[in-house]
Design goal:
This protein is mainly β. Helices cover about 5% and strands about 25% of the residues. The mean pLDDT is about 80.
C-alpha cells in the first residue's frame, strides 16, 4: 500500500469479523478466527471500547485504526479515517 489515502468502500460492503481482536477484513484468510460477517455500516463510525490490537496468530498482518471511532481493520478501505497501527514485536 502506498502513502495515498485509501478510498473508503460503500457502507453496504461485506467483511469478516475476527472473534479474537474484533478487526474486520475483506478476506477471511487474513484474520485468525472468523466470528461472522457484517456490513461496513455495522461498525463504521460507531465508537468502540475495544482497544485496537494486532493479531496474535498472524503477527505480520498490517492493521489500521480509524481516527474517528477507533475501529480496527486489516483493510484501510473499510474505515473512514484510517491510520496505520505499529506491529507488536
Amino acid at each position: 500500500m502506498t502513502d495515498k489515502t485509501p478510498i473508503p468502500l460503500p457502507k453496504d460492503t461485506k467483511a469478516y469479523i475476527c472473534a479474537n481482536c474484533g478487526a474486520v477484513a475483506l478476506d477471511a484468510a487474513r484474520i485468525c478466527k472468523v466470528q461472522g460477517m457484517g456490513k461496513k455500516i455495522d461498525w463504521c463510525c460507531s465508537a468502540t471500547l475495544m482497544p485496537p490490537k494486532t493479531c496474535h496468530n498472524r503477527k505480520n498482518n498490517i492493521r489500521w485504526r480509524c481516527k474517528k471511532c477507533g475501529q480496527t481493520s486489516v483493510n484501510a478501505e473499510l474505515l473512514c479515517e484510517p491510520e496505520k497501527l505499529e506491529l507488536d514485536d
